[in-house]
Amino acid sequence: MSFQTGHVGLNVTDLDKSKEFYTRVFGFTVAGESQEDGRRYAFLAQDGTLVLTLWQQSAGRFEAARPGLHHLSFQVADLDAVRRAETVIREIGATLYHDGVVPHREGASSGGVFFADPDGIRLEIFAPDGAGDRPAPNSDTPTCGFF
After folding, report:
1. What are the boundaries of each domain within the chain?
2. What is the distance between the alpha carbons of residues 8 and 28, in angstroms, rounded to a whole number?
3. What stretch of H or E contains 61?
4. Which of 20, 43, 53, 131 could form a disulfide with 103 if both were Cys (CB 3.0 to 4.6 A apart)?
5. Among residues 54, 52, 19, 57, which one has the least CA distance to residue 38?
6. How many CA atoms, within 13 angstroms, populate the side-chain half-sphere of residue 105?
7. Helix, strand, or coil here: 144?
């Protein structure tokens, strides 16, 4: 038996705000949605493949101290794609951790940007190469582990 991630579902507090965020930052398209009161959701796709579902059924903010999702990571082809995403993240005023592109750990060539969505859900966009010339925020722990 072999497993791979199909899509990720996230609970959000404001579907419209979250749809705008994810379509703008990631370039996802809305593949389907419901505006039915009490049952609002959106299916977000990339190149016709479902990637993310947003479910408007929560209140409050993401809490890192509670069991569950730690962060959601997306890989892109290269550091230029990471920088393009960082530009959008800064333009929309999303919370950006580590003040920009950083390696995954000291001496690693992979790295990216770490940020939060409108509900505080922690996100990462990274490239496998190109970040090695920057210092890591923490020299002894993985960057994606503590932000």
Report:
1. 8-56, 72-135
2. 13
3. none
4. 131
5. 57
6. 4
7. helix
Please name the fold of domain 72-135.
Answer: 2,3-Dihydroxybiphenyl 1,2-Dioxygenase; domain 1 (3.10.180)
For residue 146, the model assigns a pLDDT of: 83
Distances (CA, A) of 6 to 53, 71, 86: 11, 17, 26
Fold (topology level) of 8-56: 2,3-Dihydroxybiphenyl 1,2-Dioxygenase; domain 1 (3.10.180)
Residue 48's pLDDT is 96
Q: Which residue from 51, 50, 19 is spatially nearest to 34, judged by alpha carbons?
A: 19
Ranges under pLDDT 70 in the chain: none
Q: What is the pLDDT of residues 29-62, one digit of tens each?
A: 999 999 999 999 999 999 999 999 999 999 999 9
Secondary structure letter of residue 87 according to DSSP: H
Rounded Cα distance, 101 and 94, in Å: 15
Shortest CA distance to 93 belongs to which of 111, 74, 117?
117
